[in-house]
Write the structure tokens for this entry.
Amino acid sequence: MYINFLNSVTFCIAIPLFYFILSIFKTLITPPTNLPKSYPVFGSFFTILRNKHRYVQWTAEIVTSTPNLTFSLYRTIGSPVLIITANAANVRHILKSNFSNYVKGDYFTTNMRDFLGDGIFNADGDTWKLQRQVSSHEFNTKSLRKFVETAVDSEISGRLVPVMKLAAGDKTHQLDFQDILQRFAFDNICRIAFGYDPAYLSPSLPPEAEKFAVAFQKAIELSRQRFASITPYYWKIKKALNFGSEKQLKIAVDQVREFAKEIINRKKKQLLIQSGHSDEDILSRFLVSGHSDEDFVADIVISFILAGRDTTSAALTWFFWLLSKNPKVEAEIFIEVNKDKSSSSELSSAYDEVKDMVYTHGCLCEAMRLYPPVPVDTKAALNDDVWPDGTVVKKGMRVCYHPYAMGRVEEVWGGDWAEFRPERWLEREEEGGGAGKWKFVGRDSYTYTVFQAGPRICLGKEMAFIQMKRVVAGVLRRFRVVPVVVEGVEPVYVMDFTAKMKGGFPVKIIEREGV
Ligand code: HEM
């Protein structure tokens, strides 16, 4: 009887105690609770859907709070598992050490094929290598010098400055500066890619250019929608039925391709007249080197426009927003761009001038750390693999490195990572015992992945910096860009194919005195 009683007491105390200890243990070993729950069939689809409007921020919050800066996202049946990482060692492994194992992959290329075809952004293996090799000539020093002098500077003096002057003349006039910068970049990239000037920034927009630019934007948006489908079968059925967004996508893509082909034909005729002597733009390079298949050449050109159109404009939009909140930084840039102007001899070129804009370079890097133009980038694993942090990757899984999250890792950038502090990238050189010129201090490209890294690092990185610095100098020497914002309301960073400021960037332009 006594023993039975003792047994019951032990049972009543021991079992709850066991579960209590187990729950403490579980709490200690269980990963953080903000990891999205995954359910059979649908995976985390509904959580993803709930966070769709802030996908980049949501995934960044999760990945920066996991111990090894890596987590897996399970989606609906038919969609491969996605492993997201902000861990620099893993990123180096994906982009360099085991580069051949991580490709664009079928999931991405199928979603983007209608729009991008086999262009460099949608290509792997030999097709990618060929395009990289031929087009890399466009990015050597000689071509870059020419790019500054012809495309960039003439667009600044002939279009950007007059448009801003006009806005400054009317105090009530608001400009969407994001739109202006996109038009600027679009004209620039068309001149490099096609040797064609669509004049998209001119105050009286020619309808042809507008139609192309609008169709291009639509094609991007609608292609991206495919990635948000509950399952890839959904958009494939819609495509087969030529229905809804797929019907619209087809119309937009047809318009873009028709326009690209018109330009290719024009260029072919021009090359014939000049007996093939033209290597001024990417299109000519491919045509001259024997690639006459119109569809393939159109693919190449479309990818280049995508690369150059929204990236620099996104970077500059956020840059000018950050400057407006950091007047001391703006003042330092103003000194730099005017010093360059006054000290440069007649012979020093615009290309040399941008090389000296070290402080501005640091500011642009810092702006892109916080607001990278390409916030996330995804690849597919060809074979099973194990990452440096022990993460097991299975063949066919998709992996994503996350530049937006990587710019917010406290262990890397410090407790003040949320602050815009260009000095992170700069040091003062010593000069006669005092503080001298600014010196740029770069970061490891696998920690700062804004331009990707490794064999597929952005081909246009140098070109982008040149373009952005010329715009900064051209604008700040003459104008102040003042955001029209509701007090306390921050602009919202959203992801299209690249990052955007939601709803545009409304500003007023104020002309500086004495210019
Ligand atoms: C601030 C501006 C820019 C940023 C942040 C940027 C960023 C990137 C990133 C992240 C990639 C890798 C994309 C991927 O593989 O999925 C990339 C690739 C590329 N970028 Fe840029 N880009 C910028 C400007 C430009 C410009 C102006 C051009 C000029 C045409 C350009 C040309 C390219 C090309 C051709 C590739 C493909 C490289 C390859 O796959 O081998 N980029 N860029």
